[in-house]
Amino acid sequence: NAGDFVVGSPGATTLAPGATTTLDVTFTPGALGTRTAALHIASNVTGSTNPFDILLTGTGLTANQNWMQQNFGTTSATGDAAPTADPNHNGIPNLIEYALGGDPVGSTTGTSVLPGVGVDAAAHCLAFSLTRYLDRNDITLTVQAADTLTGAWTNLARSVNGAAFTVLETGAMVSETGTGGTRAVTVCDIYQTTNPTHPRRFMRLEVKQ
Fold first, then answer.
1. How many percent of the chain have pLDDT more than 90?
2. How far apart are alpha carbons 123 and 190 in whole angstroms?
3. Rounded to whole angstroms, what are the CA distances from 137 to 15, 67, 99, 118, 164?
4. How many CB atoms lie within 10 A of CB 171?
5. Which of 133, 135, 153, 134 lies closest to 144 in space, CA to CA?
6. Integer-rounded Cα radius of gyration of the chain
7. Residue 71 is inside which H or E element, if any?
8. Nearest-CA neighbor of 154 among 194, 190, 192, 196?
9. What is the mean pLDDT of residues 101-108?
10. Other C-beta atoms within 10 Å of 157: how many?
11. Which end of the chain, N or C, is more open, meaning fewer C-beta atoms within 10 Å of its C-beta?
């Protein structure tokens, strides 16, 4: 996997006996899992150390594995790093923290990352708002609605692997705004707030890996 490793120039190309120099190797995985290459350093030294060979090894991680490594020092979804774990005890499990850009181990974000619900006065509908992270390319987000908390729940709109939300149910509306790595998303319910046959409506977000 030589293309995954980029070797920089050494600090010096001529060394006196006993002297040292350094060079940087940058790893950008082209696929998931273990990636390897060999670095051959040629010199005017005679013997088996010319070229001097260094085995390069790296691991390509999913976005979620990289997030776990940064926050928990592991890529294993167990213990405090498990999707359903809540190590900072703020009531938000890790999978939701990951999906919505929360801090799973600190208290800097708290519940502020959770979606919001309000009434869209112009569209006369219940509106569900959340932030979509474009780099969360290994989860599926689905906004759902129902007349009661026990369901049945209707899938209104869905984002797959970090892509934009698409409408799943006739009458639902989706808007996305923003630049860079995030989008502010609003999903409107299929029924207007003045609909007498649906006097109460509930909305929620389903997150799946």
1. 76
2. 10
3. 46, 12, 10, 28, 11
4. 12
5. 153
6. 25
7. helix 63-72
8. 190
9. 87
10. 23
11. C
52-83 per-position pLDDT tens digit: 889 999 988 889 999 999 999 999 999 999 99
pTM: 0.78
Residues 34-72: b if buried by 16+ CB within 10 A, e if exposed? ebebeeeeeeeeeeeeeeeeeebebebeebbbebbeebb
pLDDT at 81: 97
Token pair in block for residue 36: 């390897």
Structure tokens at 185: 């998303």
Q: Are 113 and 100 in contact (CB under 8 A)?
A: yes
What is the predicted pLDDT for the residue at 18?
85
**Number of residues that this document lists for the chain:** 209
Task: Map residue 111 onto helix, strand or coil.
Answer: helix
Number of Cβ atoms within 10 Å of the Cβ of 116: 10
- Looking at residue 117, its amino acid is V
